[in-house]
Write a structure and sequence with these properties.
The chain is α/β, with parallel strands linked by helices and 875 residues long. The chain has 5 domains: 4-239, ATP-grasp fold, A domain (Dna Ligase, domain 1, 2-Layer Sandwich); 250-339, 2-Layer Sandwich (D-amino Acid Aminotransferase, Chain A, domain 1); 379-509, Phosphohistidine domain (Glucose Oxidase, domain 1); 528-618 and 660-874, Alpha-Beta Barrel (TIM Barrel); 624-659. The strands form 6 sheets. Strands 12-22-21-14-15-16-17-13 form an 8-stranded mixed beta sheet. The mean pLDDT is 92. Bound molecules: phosphoenolpyruvate (PEP) and magnesium ion.
Length: 875
Amino acid sequence: GKQVYAFHEGSAKMKALLGGKGANLAEMTRAGLPVPPGFTITTEACLSYFEQGGSLSEALKQETADALKKLELVKSQQFGSPTAPLLVSVRSGSVASMPGMMDTILNLGLNDETVMGLAALTGNPRFAYDCYRRLIAMFGNVVLGIEGHHFEQRLNKLKNSLGVRLDQDVPDYGWQRLVGEFKAICASRSERAFPQDVHEQLHMAIEAVFGSWNNSRAQIYRRINRIPDDQGTAVNIQSMAFGNRGTDSGTGVIFTRNPSTGEARLYGEYLMNAQGEDVVAGVRTPLSISAMEGEQPGLYAQLASVAQQLERHYRDMQDIEFTVETGKLYLLQTRNGKRNAKAALRIAVEFVREGLLTRNEALERIEPSHLDQLLHRGLDEQAVQAVLAVGLPASLGAAAGQLTFDADTAAQWHREGLPVILARPETTPEDIHGVLASEGVLTSRGGMTSHAAVVARGMGKPCVCGCESLRIDAKGGTMEASGIVVREGDWITLDGASGRVIVGNVPLREPETSAELLEILGWADEVRKLRVMTNADNPHDARVARAFGAEGIGLCRTEHMFFAPDRLPVMQAMILAETDAARRSALELLLPMQQSDFEGMFREMDGLPVTIRLLDPPLHEFLPSAADLQQRLAGAASGQSAGERRELTALLRKVNALHESNPMLGQRGCRLGIVFPEIYDMQIEAIFRAVAECLEDGVAVLPEIMIPLVGHVNELSFLRGRIDGMAAQLLGEEKLKACRYKVGTMIEVPRAALTARQIAAHADFFSFGTNDLTQMTFGYSRDDAEGKFLSHYVDQKLLPENPFQVLDTEGVGQLIELASAAGRAVNPRLKTGVCGEHGGDKSSIFFCHQAGLDYVSCSPYRVPLARIAAAQAAI
Ligand code: PEP
Ligand code: MG
């Protein structure tokens, strides 16, 4: 098929064939903008070049020659002509923008003869030889593979010998001399000399562009960014516009709006009498575009009007490369401009106000991860120096503090007013006071749903976990990775967005909410179908989440309430109780604590549902580890009293008795509640007592009690019976009527999903616990898989994503769809939602919308993102 398209034959829709740059040049040409004419060799031509073992086919050479002929006619110039030479630029242009590919060759078509023609034609030999020396250096670098510094050194030597500092002060004979020297560099440093045959120049340049698709930088970039290897790159060949033709020529780059604030004003830089690379090369300092407004008002006005035209055409902020040749403006490239989060929101809102976009279109353009940037602290990237290690980006935000390996020390330092980073091989509920006291958490083991990750996310604290290259020596008070050792007390900085662990105290950027964000969130709420709830375990988090727009609590993990330092001992006493009486008295102490927690949350969520999950984790999580106890016992010989020894031994006995080989598949969730009914009874009593108190005070309470880890309907019907019984007993007739409580279940065991019909008959709602459901559907341990093999799977593209982060819609999603359909068939009023970590992930939220679920529930700081994503799913 056709392998070469003139710019006027293409359009923006042909991006796959013409590459991003080619499609844009075509589109601009079509829109009547001043683009120097040219043509594009297609990505398909690139692929067949590789199929033919890396040689240009005769057919392609012929088509290129034909396109060149037409270009010659338009320009009234001829390629290789000594009197009116046509010069072109050659650029790569892949479908996705890709650093690492061959960039640009300018002034191609010059040789010892045509350079004289150009000099005569323009009456400007200095300009002609300036072009020629640039061509040889660029060609030498990107086609012949000679390192750029060889050319730069020569140029510097030349300027020294001439006694000038700036390129523009080099006279014509200087450039002529440099041309000779550059040719000599090519001849001596590569296998072939700089070609004098202009067609050979062109063919070699095309081959270099094609070849750069497979250079190692491009390959690495594609792997990281998941760009397929079989797209190929296009080649753009464009007649030159010369910014280096004199003081009324120049070149520059502009954004149509300010990319860091969003302000609707041209932003960018330019240089007069300069070509391409000079703007970025830093040899001369470019001027800001606002200076042009004063100095070249005519040009500025032209640029401003072109900018407006391009924004209208593309309906987005543009990043434009332009050249001015003897006073005439040309556009060399335009693309949607990159912008930071703040600018993105302002631009979206103003585009709607200017009538360029509808609200829905603006909403669709919001990148939810941008909101993460805005609502969390970030790093001042310029200040980042030594990256010690990279782990999983488990909880967003950035934090700096002094390193400790011990939760007690963290709490101590925090009390003394020091910012702390807590680093542990992994965290357990025993460390919770340390997590609470620290600015951020770092672990060397455990995945995105590990204890540290979940707890930190809930608290809105940054967390990097599963950082396996770190060797933490807690006893020795050091931590080592990539040969760098840091000690307890040293400053480190965590970036929860990228997973980086950085040595030193890196300055942070504060989060910001803006009027624009609130406006966009308002639009989102109007279109979304999914309700957005939050996962919160205490009144403070509930308040934060409500301020972010949460429509209730979708998951309160009650175990988190027992982790506070004053509560853990009571919980432990309850677990360790040898007699029923001892257990009961511990539970009696826990009851008022739970009741006040629940009351606090009901009050914060006045008028909105609060879903309380009964205790879920295995009991051993509340006790110290056996290894820890053994160590303490061993140390006890040197000093502890007999009483302390007895206590430790008893504790160790209990820990061993509770030991399970697979605790995640063990006595947890409703299994625990069924075997130790008094624990759930205490929680249920606390809930209804809190309900009664709130009702007295006129608070609109909507309690929803949730049973974890149900796999068989009998588990649910048994526990539901107890809940209904206790509600009647504790509330009395009148309050029972006033309080429309619900009882539902988590669906997180595959068997529950498969038997959803039976289960739904006893449930008011299904809440899909996609963390456990993913664990049990794949059979991947949520605590170990990521560090051990999962990241390897993702790197090797065996799995498209980490399924603990992005819902596996094919497998786990199928269970969700099946269970919610079956459940609704039996119980049409069944409420359904997701409360695993996926509830805050964009593509998982899209799935929930499509599956027709009623809500998602996510950590407080993700609520705004979820509102936007839910709206995008509905548009
Ligand atoms: C889940 O399993 O998805 C869930 C929300 O419960 P947890 O993470 O507490 O096990
Ligand atoms: Mg679970």
